[in-house]
């Protein structure tokens, strides 16, 4: 009989976790482990490589508007299953419970450095921020409210595209939103579109890319079809950086790439150039 008894796994007691859950997150770009509290304080931008993590609509609004000025609009609009798509409403209810949102976009009036604006913020957590009838209706109403108020409308896009559960009804939202934007433009009022990761499909093919000024966050994906589909369709290799914000800037779709920490400052500066009130004041001073 040996002097030392052989130990097994059960003798080691309860396994200890190497890292508490919910405290650290790995950056998908550089692989660094980031402390979640510090990441949140840095507006969810990696301190090592500058990767922009996805923001919720609430986080986005808090980072942009003057404190206490956001007034949500049309919060109670809810989807219907017009096409009888199997378990569609059950899926919508599940995402409502999970996210605390009624739909994939949050709209409302607010002020940025005292300048009145109307915002529409898409939230990718809700069914990939796909655009169904409610999303299109809320965005259209937000645009119409900005037109009525005589102020700028600002839309932050992040979407997988049109919502397949609603078929042609979802595709109708492309024309409806663009029609409202056309009337907004006829009123000589500004529209600032901000593209975030990812902005694809019918959203890219409609309101997201018709802004008077189009901004984008660094390295975000922008496109209609995915790169694999494009490659298989064209039977050719795609250029480096295809469908990134930097590629779109180089080819003229995007006017400016703005890091998240400078987004509010940049939008306020643009609003100071194009807002109706400032133009009137400038005209009065010149006279």
Short description:
The chain is of the alpha/beta class and 287 residues long. The protein has ten helices and nine strands.
Strand element count:
9
Q: Beta fraction of the residues? A: 15-25%
Mean pLDDT: 90
Q: What is the count of structural domains?
A: 2
Gross morphology is globular
* Biggest beta sheet attributes: 7 strands, mixed
Q: What radius of gyration results from the CA coordinates?
A: 23 Å
CATH fold category name of the largest domain? 2-enoyl-CoA Hydratase, Chain A, domain 1
Contiguous helical run count: 10
Helicity, as a percent range: 25-40%
Q: Separation of termini?
A: 107 Å
Descriptive account of the structure:
One of its GO terms (cellular component) is acetyl-CoA carboxylase complex. Its EC number is 2.1.3.15. It catalyses: N(6)-carboxybiotinyl-L-lysyl-[protein] + acetyl-CoA = N(6)-biotinyl-L-lysyl-[protein] + malonyl-CoA. Its cofactor is Zn(2+). The protein has 287 residues and is α/β, with parallel strands linked by helices. It has helices at 36-41, 57-64, 88-99, 133-149, 168-186, 201-204, 227-234, 245-250, 263-274, 276-286, and strands spanning 24-26, 33-35, 71-73, 105-112, 115-122, 152-159, 191-199, 213-216, 256-257. Strand 7, helix 6 and strand 8 (213-216) form a beta-alpha-beta unit. Helix 4 (133-149) runs parallel beside helix 5 (168-186). The chain is globular, with a radius of gyration of 23 Å.
Which descriptors apply to this entry?
287 residues; alpha/beta; 2-enoyl-CoA Hydratase, Chain A, domain 1; seven-stranded mixed sheet; two-stranded antiparallel sheet; 10 helices; disordered C terminus; zinc ion binding; zinc; Acetyl-coenzyme A carboxylase carboxyl transferase subunit beta; ClpP/crotonase-like_dom_sf; transferase
